[in-house]
């Protein structure tokens, strides 16, 4: 007996994405334990309380920074065929998106400050539906090529304007 | 038609000055009121709060005034032009072919002053359209007539006013009005904001004589009796609020199919609303049965359509019926979709048992969390809360489990002709039918639990309504087969078959 499954898209994102995700995770997860640590060091009478608070906030934060980027790197993938864009994303909660090229309305590039630092770019493929398909962490050149290809294709395939 | 050839121009009504000046007057009035209540004394905090409010209102009023002075409209043979703005000038021009509908609405304040808002839907993305806010009723009616006439000469769309009536308000539906839960929430929110306002003005409502008296009386009866009475009073107030909201929202309701393939909903007592939906943009309908309403055999019908504006506007404008008897909602759905049986829940494919387990898990986790929160408070505030936590947990667990079973029983999906049907939800049961040719992509999501138990949630993305409609917790095979059957060849290139030996780690395998 055989079962069905969604196969993973063909292309991985750039491996620099791991660095980008780590940086993002650090920015998100470390300020709180850092604040507690400074308080711990600077206010002696409350030492014990702030020591515990620092530890409690630091351990999940470090775990997040250590695990999330690698996990994401295993999941995040993308693929463009003659008919459709196919992308996988997420880590604990994962998402697979398929959009036919005939329904693509706009293709945008997004490059946040952190993403620029790592030489990455994100491509967002919008249809008439309110939620766009995002492919983040692409190598800059690959991203530009992808946008150029998608833009040329979306003019070719006759589409509906919902 | 000669009248369309002559250019027609105009501006907003001068009565808007009253509104613009009225806005900053509100904090002044509040300040006087606080002086009155506090016996002529004031303090810095009150001054700062009301002062900043006054400044904000001044800016808002100023903008209103600027809008009034600068807004112009101009209807020529070729296009409708709209210019407005002092600092940020904007100019819109619409050719006749783009005008999909012209609706005139008025909110209570506008009614008081005899003003209206004219809204021109141009069918663009992201709520494309023009709004002229603050025309006199006569001007608006005249402009609307001219625009419609002008459009007709442009292309052959005929908008007659009183074609095919589909549904009309029935007084008996008022019995469903108290069953919308928003009432209780509304009462609490109103009480909260009154308290906050008084508090900001340094008046503690708990120290007012009337409230003190109430508290003393409350203290003189047993606690359970007091709580029971308070709950009953709250529910009664909430029901009254819901009823009033229903009357305001739905008086004069009618749903018509106008010529040119337009569904038009008219409703409203103080604020009249008129919503036009083009049938060619209709992607389906949604039957909603929230819990108190469902127990009384009622339901609401929403349109799943594009062109109603952004997410919030879509929420406010998508209603096709008020709360009505379920059979009536189904009849209207039949008229709108031309097939009545599409919304029938019987005959939908049920979802696997793992979906039930997921729901029961959620129910138990929710019960434990609520109990733990109460017990946690107890460690801090005293033994009574710990006991309350235990009792709540023990009561909540079976109740929520029953809901979980109901949620699983509700789950279903199926293909019905040109439509994809799906049902889900327990507190508000929703049945959605979506046109298959309106599906413009798939979104498959899997949580860790779903990956472990071989489930997935299949989301159909569409240009209409909420953007994504989800078939929740189907088995992987079921979901992928459904996607393929609903929209052939879209997902198929990305689906492969594998020998099934380790059901748990499917889908992740490829990632190495």
How would you describe this structure to a colleague?
The complex is a heterodimer of chains A (162) and B (512). Chain A has two domains: 12-72; 77-156, PH-domain like (Roll). Chain A is 48% helix and 27% strand. Chain A is built from five helices and eight strands; from the N terminus they run ββαααββββαββα. Chain B is α+β, with helices and mostly antiparallel strands and 512 residues long. Helices cover 45% and strands 25% of the residues of chain B. In chain B, a hairpin with a 2-residue loop joins strand 15 (412-416) and strand 16. The radius of gyration of chain B is 28 Å and the shape is globular. The interface between A and B is large, with 37 and 44 residues.
Rg for CA atoms of chain B: 28 Å
Quaternary structure type: heterodimer
Assign the CATH topology of the largest domain in chain A: PH-domain like
Order of helices and strands of chain A: EEHHHEEEEHEEH
Terminal Cα span of chain A: 41 Å
Helical content class of chain B? 40-55%
Provide the fold topology:
The complex is a heterodimer of chains A (162) and B (512).
Chain A: E1 2-6, E2 11-12, H1 16-29, H2 31-42, H3 47-75, E3 77-80, E4 84-90, E5 94-100, E6 106-110, H4 113-117, E7 120-126, E8 133-139, H5 140-156
Antiparallel strand pairs in A: 2-3, 3-4, 4-5, 6-7, 7-8
Chain B: E1 8-11, H1 16-37, H2 44-70, E2 72-75, E3 80-84, E4 90-94, E5 101-105, H3 108-113, E6 115-121, E7 129-136, H4 137-154, E8 165-168, H5 182-200, H6 209-220, H7 223-250, E9 254-258, E10 262-267, E11 273-278, E12 282-290, H8 291-295, E13 298-305, H9 311-317, E14 324-325, H10 326-337, H11 353-381, H12 383-410, E15 412-416, E16 419-424, E17 428-435, E18 439-446, H13 448-453, E19 455-462, E20 468-475, H14 476-486, E21 495-499
Antiparallel strand pairs in B: 1-2, 2-3, 3-4, 5-6, 6-7, 8-9, 9-10, 10-11, 12-13, 12-17, 13-14, 15-16, 16-17, 18-19, 19-20
Helix pairs in contact in B: 1-2, 5-7, 11-12
